[in-house]
Predict the structure.
Amino acid sequence: MKDKFFEGADFKDKKFKALLPEFYPLEYQKYIEEETGLLKKQLSGAERVLEAGVGVGRIIPEIAPLVNEFVGIDNADLMLAEARKIAKKFPNVKIIRGDLETLGTIFPEDYFDYSLCIWNTLGNVKDELAVLTQLARVTLKGVIVTTYLRGTVENRKNWYKAVGVEIIKIDEQNDVFYSRTGLQSKSYGPKDMVDLARRAGICITNSRILAGLILWTEFRKFPV
């Protein structure tokens, strides 16, 4: 069911508004601006960067000029097609098909300086623990994750309405949204991330809230 959402079932022949900030409410546009600035500052000069869940390739033009190699991975045909259109402009960008739960079978250990799992990609996967564990395995310096912040249900309602995603159920106790096309979207608080890090056997090196809406968390393996 989830594949229907990422293959554009909510948008059909229209633009995939859910991944285009120009259609977002101003508060979410502010988040995107803040996140992009932080990423550019932190990733500048990196050898290799992975974006897990590259989507339509929104961040590629911002990050690719700053790094030696940028790899985007996704498993949805629509996402891959759109990301590849953008990637053509950057010789150091590779877009590949793959599942985030099996990154360790695709890339060697510590292959990337940094890995990104942004704009709530982690909250949309089936097994966030498996994805986080795999990201840490293939990343040397840091895994940067941004997710919906727990407790922002009303903001999220407005966002889904603005971008044209039909929500059929909201579990307000657990902050989980369910769309008509099968998306199950979670949110997290700092304590949730501490628990995920503990279960994955990794540590948190930084945490902050962006625009009052999004939780930014940085992970890495414990030093040997």
